[in-house]
């Protein structure tokens, strides 16, 4: 007989390794193992999500006639690793072949390839662009710009196109219409809610028992764990959120973790939703006049553009990519990333929300916690480990390029053409945090001045040699050079003082 491996982020009925096997003769192995649950200190709710969704998927496979060997986390003979479980089950079942689908993470794929196992590999066809197709697209190009990749994907997938193949509305990109600050008092739709069933409750108890040393709340888990629930979450967004997605994509508001974001990333990444169907639903919603084009285009760009593009970069450049540190940053991650205990209101709000829900939307990740890490010169490996740990949707293939490349500019601009550095003014424009902050966003050098301001100029001054030639930063360097020398000296000193306080363990 043959054995098929289904990992915790491969919970799709049309997974390639399942398609290659026969339920009448072959068997499936699924295993909850310590190595996967502990290689970073995952948020407890992320472990609840993976284990509960795995258990539900195993039952659904059995209902479809599959023989599933399921190893629970606390099973007495659990070896603690995926490779160990494959070796054990291969022997006891006498399996001649083990069918596996490409892993999401280089780390695990390498461990499998290094093991003495009769593996038969399958492409992960759940992505629209294979690793090989991305490598072909990248070959011979001097710069790998997302926008170029995205246009090719729109044509290939036939999404938001006019009958003659030109882009709907006459443009590939409607960013000019998007990214508005949130009007005062506007709230996002009520969030979809998911009751915990007996399976999830049992997993919550298990996680509480074994992972109390991980940061983040286990209580309040409220996320889909089955395909049906994921579909409900998706329909909820289509009905109530998508129409305003483009307009308020970059807005942040106190007490509004989701605003007009879909909250589907974790469900997509573990296989409970299918990216093709999601994009087709958005295309249909636009064609039927239910959502404006700027919303539909903005949303589809995130999926067939950014999501596929970062995966392509990951597999093109790993394992060396994980080691890059273009700006030579070495500062350890401040403790307040794990506790939210800081007077910086924006940081405290995003971190507290993250610890409570395992979720923050893109601008919170990029322009608040990410921006601070960039300005403060945090070591890329430390901040990457944080992002990989704290979000329910975090897997190395998507977290690493976003953090190391987009946020930290540690790849020297391979992924993003300029660092997304910003002062407190950006956060003030896009959120309501500053009004409630004990720091003053309009000040840079005084004792209570917003730390983002001095750190922003300090970052630009200390990295002048690496950044000043970048045409997209020409204007900010002109502003810096136009600053009165005494003021430049004062922001530098304030920046030095803030960094010294971080080094002394002060939570700012
Ligand atoms: P929406 O805003 O509603 O967007 C819809 C979908 O588009 C998302 O579900 C996601 O699948 C996709 N998407 C949007 N932006 C990106 C992007 N930059 N890269 C890849 N896919 C994107 N996303 C992850 O799925 N896992 C991660 O580990 C992850 N780490 C990140 C780390 C940093 C530092 C940053 C800046 C971004 C990261 N992202 C990650 C991308 C993005 O922040 C999340 O996908 C998004 O916030 C998920 O929430 P949502 O489903 O409500 O997204
Ligand atoms: C994230 C995760 C966790 C917490 N636990 C498991 C597990 O016990 N068993 C499993 O098969 N997968 C788990 N996962 C997801 C894997 O870490 C993920 O499949 C790989 O990192 C992607 O290559
Ligand atoms: Fe954040 Fe500065 Fe605004 Fe405070 S003043 S919320 S630290 S941007």
From TrEMBL:
Tell me where the signal peptide lies.
none
Checking Pfam families in the record gives: DPRP
Q: What is this protein called?
A: Cryptochrome/photolyase family protein
* Species: Pseudomonas guariconensis
